[in-house]
Amino acid sequence: MAKIFDADTTLQRLRNRYRLVVMNDDTYEEVVTVRLSRLSVYITLCTVFVVLVGLTVALLVFTPLRYYVPGYGSGSDRRELITLKLQVDSLEQQMIYRDKYLENIQNVLKGTTANMPLDTTQLNVPKDDKTED
């Protein structure tokens, strides 16, 4: 028959106490005695693992070691990338303006200006003193 998983016995096995004794091999003197359970060992190992992972991540994130991680890049590369992105954005805007300008010129040459909005802005041109003479 298959043994049924019993939570009580598993928990009891985790809580059983064991004694770890470190002895001097020459004199058989007890150097260190520690009382442990499986649960305390698991908790200790998990805590050490989490702390080590946290320290490693902090070391890589907050120090210049992050530049040695493949795919991260250096600080100068990041500044250059930002500068290039700004240039590309401005060039895209200039291309849009140029395309709109050329489309308007083509419409004027074809004579299809009916769908273009009329400019109704009133200009206030100052009178020049030289033209009155």
Q: Distance N terminus to C terminus? A: 122 Å
Low-confidence stretches: none
Number of helices: 3
List the secondary-structure elements in sequence, H or E. HEEHH
Q: Briefly note the structural class of the backbone.
A: mainly alpha
Molecular shape: elongated
Strand order of the largest sheet: 1-2
Q: Over all CA atoms, what is the radius of gyration?
A: 40 Å
Tell me the β content.
Answer: 5-15%
Q: How many strand segments? A: 2
Number of domains: 2
Helix content: 40-55%
* Average pLDDT taken over every residue: 86
Main sheet record: 2 strands, antiparallel
Report on this structure.
This protein has 133 residues and is mainly alpha-helical. It has 2 domains: 62 residues, no CATH class; 39 residues. The chain contains 3 helices and 2 strands; from the N terminus they run αββαα. A two-stranded antiparallel sheet has the order 1-2. The model has no long low-confidence stretch (mean pLDDT 86).
Structure in a nutshell:
53% of the residues lie in helices and 11% in strands. The protein is mainly alpha-helical. The mean pLDDT is 86.
Keyword list:
2 strands; mainly alpha
Topology:
Layout: H1 7-15, E1 17-23, E2 30-37, H2 38-62, H3 75-110
Antiparallel strand pairs: 1-2
